[in-house]
Design a protein that fits this description.
heterodimer; A: mainly alpha; about 60% helix; B: about 230 residues; mainly alpha; Arp2/3 complex 21 kDa subunit ARPC3; two-stranded antiparallel ribbon; globular
Chain lengths: ~110, ~230
């Protein structure tokens, strides 16, 4: 087996295990990363919502927000884990694909 | 470490976007010259690895979460400029598709995680490993130390970006317009959790893969020159 295939198997293993990144924080009652709070959390922490923050924070509607499907917030951990794996798969496929194309385009020019 | 939209002022975002343009241009130029055709699939794997490892949120019980970036590893294996491109792709897709990191903050997030992290990590690794044999233990230690210092430097950089916001942008009555905590709060908050917890995740991930690849394919490391 080539090294690349072995590494892809490793990526596949990480993909399957990725819901740990969702389940462990839940188990240990850990919140968001520092500085990645939403409007409500900022309001609670500081007592106000910074004006500029309020204006910009909802700027972008991601198709798979927080590695889940739209409207899935608050669903059970099993469903969220499913969405997480799908997100990981989609992300890996697009990111590897885009990087491969960029790499090919850059390298080709001097071949 | 993914700064969302609204935490940095548009001007700050503009500055970091502008700073990243020559970095991306140089990365393209260097990678064009140094990357070989057979390394292109590994660049793609590196980007995918960085993305998926960032999904492993590690909890501090009762506190916050964080994650490794895997960027120092990519820098060690393929060079820091190649790592810059791979991590940039991961960060842009994270922002667009998953809303992880802001659209407006792409420049700043790339500066921290696709520039500061791989470059600091790589040069620490280079400095410690110096001319030690490819299969040596010293290289694994060098990789671990590089990973640790790289991610902590990126966290410091993010902490500074957060922390300057309330100093520069506030209303007449002192309310922040964007990120609300100053340097005295933001820097210790960002750096401490990476020094204590998330930095070690980066160390373990980096050292394990370097150790594995030393055995598996030591040729890899010769491709890592920049």
């Amino acid at each position: 087996m080539t090294l690349a295939s072995k590494l892809w198997i490793g990526i596949g293993a990480l993909l399957v295990l990725s819901p740990l990144g969702l389940i462990l924080p839940e188990q240990f009652k850990a919140g968001k990363a520092w500085g990645e709070w939403g409007v409500d959390e900022i309001q609670k922490m500081t007592g106000y919502v910074p004006q500029g923050f309020h204006r910009l924070s909802e700027l972008w509607k991601a198709p798979l927000p927080d590695y889940a499907f739209h409207g899935w917030v608050g669903k059970d951990l099993f469903s969220m884990s499913f969405a997480y794996i799908i997100s990981a798969f989609v992300g890996i496929a697009i990111i590897a694909g885009v990087t491969f194309i960029i790499g090919k385009a850059l390298v080709k020019e001097h071949e | 470490m993914h700064i969302p939209d609204g935490y940095l002022s548009p001007a700050t975002c503009g500055v970091f976007g502008a700073v990243m343009i020559p970095i991306w241009a140089t990365a393209s130029k260097v990678v064009k010259k140094t990357l070989s055709v057979r390394q292109v699939p590994y660049l793609a794997i590196g980007a995918a690895f960085s993305f998926v490892i960032m999904m492993f949120n590690v909890p501090i019980p009762g506190g916050s979460t964080g994650h490794a970036v895997g960027g120092v590893l990519v820098a060690i294996l393929l060079g820091p400029w190649a790592a810059c491109i791979a991590i940039t792709v991961a960060l842009v897709i994270q922002a667009l598709l998953f809303g992880d990191g802001g659209i407006t903050a792409i420049g700043a997030n790339c500066f921290n995680m696709a520039f500061v992290l791989p470059f600091v990590g790589y040069y620490v690794y280079k400095f410690i490993s110096s001319d030690s044999p490819v299969g040596s233990k010293r290289r694994i230690i060098a990789a671990g130390v590089g990973a640790y210092i790289g991610i902590c430097a990126a966290a410091l950089s993010a902490g500074i970006e957060f922390g300057i916001q309330p100093l520069l942008y506030h209303t007449a009555n002192g309310q922040a317009l964007y990120a609300p905590y100053g340097l005295n709060v933001a820097i210790p908050a960002m750096v401490s959790v990476h020094l204590l917890v998330f930095g070690w995740v980066e160390v373990i991930v980096t050292a394990l893969v370097v150790k594995y690849l030393q055995k598996e394919n030591s040729v890899f490391f010769e491709g890592g020159r920049s």
